[in-house]
Fold each of these.
Amino acid sequence: MTNRITWILGNWKQNHLNADAAECAEGVGAGLEAALANPVAGCPEVRVGYAPTYLALAAAAPFTRPATGAWLLAQDVAAQESGAFTGEIGVAMLKEAGVDAAIVGHSERRAYFGDTNALVASKVANALAHDLTVVLCVGESLEARDKGEHETTVITQLSESLAQVASSEMDARVIIAYEPVWAIGTGRTASPQQARDMHRAIRTHLRETYGDAGNDRSILYGGSVKPGNAAELLSAGDIDGFLIGGASLKAESFLAIAAAAAQTARPTA
Ligand code: PGA
């Protein structure tokens, strides 16, 4: 049995001006130690982080590692190293801003900004080539789920988005987030069984493709996660944390989810 890291990650999306970003980051930093204190027996290591807008990274950075345990994330990253790519932000720029990891392939990027699996694959490859951790998002539409095509949709997204990742690169720098599109910002959460079943399918694919290195990756769930449903989801098994939108915008609710992660026993099977 592996001891995968549990990640509690916030995605602030296009929210929080600098003052609010600093307030939220400061609140998380101040409460983190207490939230993660005295974990339940057998609890995996819990790590916390959040992704402000690019412009609010500097406001949040003083409250992240090394000052606190919180990781600083970006919401995206360019597919190119540098050059004439108007509007893009490269890995070196993110690192200079203190960023530890980047979200890639979020469903809102895919739906509204044309991020295809091929583009996502280039972003993942560029990030890993320059040693930046990625949180790769996949998830099906309601239409795909209703047609019973959710698993094939997600596994296709996953394999195409990881197409440029060599076996030697499949390590702790790769985190997967399963976020069914119909559960994002809708208040409608996937049932613990729906989430667990998809996580198992993702893990099987990763194991078959990358062996133990694939099997050991953390797979997060995202979509209307709140303090009230976090423990139930984690108890289902095979869910190694969360990517959280709405409930990450306030330190209090975000920390409550982190605390739930530290206090929820995971099934051993
Ligand atoms: P939500 O967003 O928690 O507001 O549903 C999740 C996400 O998009 O990562």
Amino acid sequence: QAQLSEMTLEKRGELIAAMRKAGIDNAEYLARLAHEETGYGRVADKVQKNLLVSRRTPGIEDLVTRCETGDKGMMLIEQAPFGVIGSITPSTNPTSTVINNSISMISAGNAVVYNPHPAAKRASQKAMELLNEAIVKAGGPNGLMTAAKEPTLDTSKVIMTHKAIKMLAVTGGEAVVGVAMKSGKKCVAAGPGNPPVIVDETADIAQAAKDIVDGASFDNNVLCVAEKEVFMVNSIADSLMNTMEKCGAYRVYGEDIDKIVRTVLIQKDGKYVINRKFVGHDATYILRESGVQFSGDPVLVIADVDRYHPFVEVEMLMPVLGMVRVNNFDEALDEAFRAEHGCQHSAMIHSSNVHNMSRAARRMNTTIFVKNAPSYSGLGFGGEGYTTLTIATPTGEGLTSAKSFTRARRCVLKGDFRII
Ligand code: NAD
């Protein structure tokens, strides 16, 4: 990190370009590694995630200098590196989070020590290795990214308490976010979500059905922004579910719903939690393991359930989507707000009523709010804007980028330097 801070910004830009190229060139290789190691998701979608973060994570241009001049002289604020950052990464996007975090953090002049998820350590470490090689080849220092070889909760504690680590970035579930926020260090925390979708009677049903199936089945629903439950107004509910079936969803009924609950969820302390064996697995695998008869090759399971069903309450992280009927838009909004559990993460709406869209955006108060598109368009995939895979919800940085990993420093000069 000390060596990086001595280099010019132009050089830093060249290192970032080399990292992007390594991410693009190895997108498929890393996608396969991640899939082999974790068993989660779909290789083709993981390729897209690796490409997205390599291309659209902002680089050094994200660091904007602020300058003010006046009668008393000049004030300058620049975005400086924190130093060495400790980053804890999830099993659900293991290589794409490493590419994304590394581009953001190194663009800001930092180095990173990772504690990758133990279930995805090899794929995450390979991504670091390839990025490090690209940096060295481009004339940068070796080892800007490093990691515990055998990451455990103990190594994460070492990182969280180490004196030389000035800042933490944590992407994962509630437990790790809670621990990191108590560490006493500056922390960028990207926590869990349970993104609801609202579909009102003014929605373009054909488009809404396709978007929901595409978003909820992408990488088998492991993305934190992915559609996790749907609240649909009664008058369009049947037509929405019928159209979703035509787009690749498989609808289950009655006892089959209960079979899936018993298979993919576990009861713990009176609450349902997910059985990790089914996270990010194919819809067909889930149906088969649950003993449900089906035909074709569905990418998503949908179930017409009540609003308190575990498919609604639990962050499923697998292609199983609870569909809830409501009487009207107001009820949909109340239920969507409740189902999001205050995570303030992501929510979607399908509607052509501008008033409903605005009311939902305001009330949901989420970091990402998507209108009339699949959830992933909120990450810049098929939508406008830059991308990240670390969406800082509780700490408020939102969609992180290089500037999220900087310290603002101010310098003033009295008197001179004005030209007017
Ligand atoms: P996870 O919480 O199981 O693991 C995340 C990381 O935290 C891993 O490296 C793990 O080893 C570590 N960890 C877990 N408990 C810990 C503890 N008590 N102390 C120290 N480290 C601990 O998450 P996962 O299943 O790999 O990923 C899915 C979760 O992450 C979902 O809840 C998802 O919503 C969330 N997520 C959020 C974002 C975001 O940007 N907000 C992005 C991706 C994933």
